[in-house]
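Hey, resending since the last one bounced:
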Amino acid sequence: MASLSCRGALLTSLLLLYPLLCAACPDVCSCSSGEVDCRDRALHFVPSGLPTNASAVLLGYNRIARLKAHTFLQQRSLLYLSLHGNVLVSIHSQALAGLWALQELDLSNNSLVVLTAETFLPLPSLTTLNVGSNQLAQLAPDVPRTLPQLQALFLHNNALRSLDTGFFENLPAVRLLTLAGNPWACSCSIWPLFLWLTHNRDKIQEENLTVCQFPELLNQFPIAALDNASFSHCQESPLHPHDYAFFLLIGPASFLGSIIICILTGCLVVACNKLSKDPYPRQRAPRPRMTLPQQ
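The C-alpha cells again:
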C-alpha cells in the first residue's frame, strides 16, 4: 500500500509539474503567453529547450547560419516562426519536421540560394511564407506544390530571372504575391509570369515595381505593361531563313553522297571477291573407266 501511495504521489507531482516543464524558457530568451522571444541575442544556433507549448518563436536578428535536422521537433503547437535577419545559407530537409500546425514562416533577409520541396513537406498548414531579400536564383514548381494551403508568398528582392511554367499552377490558394526587386529577364521564359499577371493583377503588391531588367531595351519596364504581341514570336518556329536554306542544301547533298558511297562500297566488295579467287584452277584428273572382267 505504501508503495502504491508513493507511486500515486509521484504521478500527481509529475502531472502538476508538466505545464511548468513545458513552459520552461531558455536563459537567453524571454517567454510570455506562449511567445518565445530570442531576438537580437547574437545566437549562432537555435537554443535548445524551447517550450513545447510555444505558439510563436522569434529568432530574428541573430547570426544563425544553418538549421539542423529536427531543430523544432518538439514544438508541435507552434503557429508562427521567425528567422528574419539572420545569415541562413542552408536548411536541412528535416529541420522543420514536427511543425504540422505552423501557419506563418518568415525566412526573409537571409542568404538562402536554394529552397527544396523536401524542406516544406512537414508544413501542410502553412499559409504565409516570406523568403524575400535572399539570394534565390530559381524556385522549382514543386516547392509550392508541397504547400497546398499557401495564401501569401513573398519573393521580393531575390535573384529570380524567371519562374517555371508550372509554378503558378501549384498556387491555387495564393492571394498575395510579391515579385519586385528581381532581375527579371523579359524573354520567352517570362511568358508564364506575364500570363499569370494579366489575370491576377489584384494579387500582386507593387505591380509597377515588378519590372524587366533584361534586355537593356526593356530595362525598368513593368512586366504587366507588356502586351501579347511582345511574346508572339515565342509560339513560332525558332528557325530562321538561313536555317531553312542550310537544310535544303545539306539534305539532297547528304542523300547523293550516301548513294555514291554505297556504289563505291559495292564495287570494292566485288573487286575483292574476284581477286580472292584462284586465277589458275587445277584440272581434275580423269576418272578411271571401269571394265567388266571377261568370262
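The first helix runs from residue 2 to 22.

Sorry for the duplicate.
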